[in-house]
Design a protein that fits this description.
The complex is a heterotrimer of chains A (129), B (159) and C (509). Chain A is mainly alpha-helical and 129 residues long. Chain A is 75% helix and 0% strand. The chains are: A mainly alpha (129), B mainly alpha (159), C mainly alpha (509).
Chain lengths: 129, 159, 509
């Protein structure tokens, strides 16, 4: 029981992020619909962002906004550096999703469906050109 | 049948007509208060773009396009990116190569080193906000544009 | 700041992004200006990179603090010999591809000229950014900028390219996310993101499982970006329908800058001492060996010329990774350390660039994709075919071309490290290269065009590619031979010796 508490309950944030990452990876690999693949990619990236943010958490910490009161009374604040890194990574993720969605829209125009198996069959019929 | 005219939903139109300016004002607040609270360039830009998206959802796409034409879009995104990349270059230009890029303290806005730095950061945040707003609005317009065109063509053929 | 040259690393990136926006505005007003602005910017960047290389070789490493903030709290741009060398190769190949694209883009993508040059300039921004930065999270951001531009450019022709680009997008994003996760693990252990600082803070933690897991994630993420076997499946599809100069950039530069990132993380962040603790590089040698054989065998079975060249790229990334894997075991010879790997990065960029640009010229003139349609091409397009043959015999490894020099150095390094099996792998792959390139050469020169007979052979008219496309192809092909002679005369060796002494891989004085 001690082992269970120490390994699982104390480190629950790492378990959550691993499970979310695997769910996202399953979505990318196993689903046929292209939009579901993009959603899986988003879940995968969100899990990594959660991991980064949980790295910066400090016990009893408040928001990292410096004010006079905070300096005088000596409040503890959470680490703001992972938050800034994740803001950048979120922007990258938004851009990737936008590019992926526009690719899916054009594929829908070309092939008339967004199921991956249909697209593979139709492109095999077209051949190389 | 009323297929050639969209049904007008009075509640949504009225509410969004009232809300859009307040959303944009809140977006400006978020951009400027980036250093002293949650916010910053990217977040404020997205909130600003969401005002346009609300307008398009309530009214139709061509009205939204009329309010925010593609030429304004290109110019705004370029202008914001020029501010973002160019302010850093100003610090090299004004000290003729002695000080590093992005060291905003040496741009002579005011005479105080720290104030220069804060002003430089504010300008950069505004530049990022303008660019992000233009880009996200243009992403939405481009993703929504083709569907509407196909829908209209389909309606015309079926008439 | 004493020298103005120290500003050049940042200026290379910033001028590139400013010119991308300028192309957008100016091209929207008048279409023809897009090429001029892009060409002028790339010329300026290339000259700046030559100045940087000269400064690094004479004065020393450039350490540039962005914003004046002291690292590790600020971002730092570090230019040492490795960086400067890769930057020169990158900008040279980009310049050659832009000159080539003047005619090609109007033919391939007539309505999208301005967008093409804008995204192309953003791609160059990302590539330069990966090369100059000394902060590991900054490297992740620039890797993603590069990859996003590459996804867009590959998909620009439509139809089958869209599916290939989508596959590349999903796989590339997973790879970049693994890279981010590795950075997260390293940050969790040390609290720093600066590469130099990490190399000082990490040594007490080398046995820690988090650090080893971080290393594994970074390596796998970069291997996906680098198209190392077995994570290469996106590369042949991406090549098959992309525009010609984008294929040349993809195989010549984008995957090679990812291998530069691999070298940078493995040697600058985790120093040589970490790499000797675990048998990582032995496993890397074996994976690279399998990549070489698999890439060459798969290339033989292809009917589409560009897919065949794509599989040949997979095999060549195997050469580079084999040379990297052998680098810690070889200490005392002229072919020590990272010399064969860096040599092959330059040589592969030249050879593959020339091959893909020539293939693009065939498609531009005669719309030929499949090898069996190349009959009689040797007479119809003599200069382009000659350049193709030069680059092909360089890939096979005939002296004194560049391909011969890098294969020689890798074989000698393998003998020195006492791993004779890799010598056999390299010789076998040269034989396989000969098989699939000979097929193309034979079809081009020795089979008559369809419907012709011997008495009419003099009536086949010469229909050569236009000058703007021919000049880059001939430049690269002649450089294949000229650089080979220069390598044999050991003229560029001081750069590589400086790289080796930076990482502690050279012989003890």
């Amino acid at each position: 029981m001690e082992w269970f508490v120490a390994k699982v309950f104390a480190k629950y944030n790492y378990w959550v992020f691993i499970i979310l990452m695997m769910i996202g990876l399953y979505g990318i690999i196993a689903k046929n619909n292209l939009i579901k693949k993009i959603i899986g990619l988003n879940i995968f990236q969100t899990a990594i962002f959660l991991y980064f943010i949980s790295l910066g958490a400090v016990k009893g910490g408040t928001a990292p906004i410096v004010s006079e009161e905070m300096i005088q009374k000596g409040y503890v604040y959470v680490n703001p550096l992972p938050h800034v890194l994740i803001l950048t990574a979120i922007v990258v993720s938004v851009a990737t999703t936008a590019v992926a969605l526009s690719l899916v829209i054009r594929m829908h125009h070309e092939y008339g469906s967004i199921e991956e198996s249909d697209i593979i069959e139709k492109s095999k019929d077209q051949g190389m050109t | 049948m009323k297929e050639s005219e969209k049904e007008r939903d009075v509640i949504i139109e009225t509410v969004s007509r009232v809300m859009v300016p307040f959303i944009q004002l809140f977006a400006l607040y978020v951009i400027i208060h980036g250093t002293g609270g949650p916010g910053g360039g990217f977040q404020g830009g997205v909130v600003f773009a969401s005002a346009f998206i609300l307008y398009v959802i309530a009214f139709d796409l061509s009205g939204g396009r009329g309010r925010f034409p593609e030429s304004a879009n290109t110019l705004l995104s370029s202008f914001g990116l020029y501010i973002y990349a160019g302010i850093g270059l100003l610090s090299i230009i004004f000290t003729s190569g002695a000080i590093q890029y992005l060291n905003y303290g040496f741009i002579p806005f005011t005479s105080h080193f720290e104030e220069n730095r804060a002003l430089g950061m504010d300008f950069v945040e505004m530049g990022i906000g303008i660019t992000v707003m233009a880009i996200i609005a243009s992403i939405f317009f481009d993703l929504a544009h083709k569907e509407e065109k196909d829908g209209e063509r389909g309606k015309e053929e079926s008439r | 700041m004493i020298y103005f040259v120290e500003h050049f690393p940042v200026l290379v990136v910033v001028i590139s992004i400013l010119s991308a926006i300028t192309i957008l505005i100016a091209g929207w007003i008048h279409r023809k200006t897009a090429w001029f602005i892009s060409m002028a910017t790339l010329l300026g960047q290339f000259i700046a990179s030559l100045f940087i290389l000269r400064h690094v070789l004479t004065v020393g490493t450039i350490r540039y603090r962005l914003g004046g903030w002291v690292p590790p709290w600020g971002i730092e741009y570090v230019m040492d010999a490795l960086n400067a060398y890769i930057l020169v190769i990158l900008l040279f190949l980009a310049l050659v591809c832009v000159i080539y694209s003047k005619k090609n883009i109007e033919h391939e993508l007539p309505q999208k000229v301005v967008s093409f040059y804008t995204v192309y300039q953003l791609l160059i921004t990302g590539l330069c950014g990966i090369t100059v930065t000394g902060d590991i999270f900054n490297m992740y951001v620039f890797i993603e900028i590069t990859s996003l531009s590459a996804y867009t450019l590959i998909a620009s022709r439509g139809k089958i390219a869209l599916k290939a680009s989508f596959t590349y997008l999903v796989l590339g994003s997973i790879g970049a996310c693994f890279f981010l996760l590795g950075i997260g693990f390293l940050y969790a252990v040390t609290g720093s993101l600066n590469m130099h600082d990490l190399s000082i803070l990490l040594p007490p933690f080398y046995k820690n499982r988090v650090v080893m897991a971080g290393f594994a994630f970074i390596i796998v993420g970069l291997s996906i970006k680098m198209a190392l076997f077995p994570l290469h499946t996106w590369l042949p599809d991406a090549h098959a329908f992309a525009p010609a100069e984008i294929s040349a950039m993809l195989s010549g530069i984008i995957i090679e800058v990812s291998s530069y990132a691999f070298i940078r993380v493995a040697f600058s962040v985790f120093t040589v001492h970490f790499l000797k603790l675990l048998p990582i590089f032995d496993i890397l040698c074996w994976v690279a060996g399998v990549a070489i054989i698999a890439g060459s065998v798969l290339a033989i079975t292809q009917v589409n010329l560009k897919r065949m060249l794509a599989y040949s790229s997979v095999a060549n990334m195997g050469y580079i990774m084999l040379a990297v894997g052998l680098s810690t075991s070889v200490m005392e010879a002229p072919w020590n350390g990272l010399t064969p790997a860096l040599m092959h990065i330059l040589n592969h960029a030249l050879m593959k660039g020339c091959l893909f640009l020539a293939a693009g010229a065939f498609i531009y003139k005669a719309d030929l994709w499949l090898i069996k349609d190349f009959r009689g091409l040797g007479k119809r397009m003599p200069y382009t075919s000659a350049a193709f043959v030069l680059a092909a015999i360089s890939m096979i490894g005939v002296p004194p071309s560049v391909g011969f020099v890098s294969k020689l150095y890798i074989i000698l390094a393998a003998i020195e490290a006492k791993k004779i099996i890799f010598v056999a792998v390299l010789l076998l792959s040269s034989l396989l290269n000969l098989v699939y390139f000979w097929r193309v050469i034979e079809t081009m020169y020795m089979k008559r065009a369809e419907g012709g007979d011997p008495s009419h052979s003099t009536l086949i008219s010469k229909d050569e590619a236009p000058f703007w496309m021919l000049a880059p192809i001939l430049t690269l092909a002649s450089l294949c031979i000229v650089m080979g002679v220069l390598w044999l005369a050991k003229i560029p060796m001081p750069i590589l010796d400086q790289v080796n002494s930076l990482f502690g891989l050279s012989k003890m004085p």
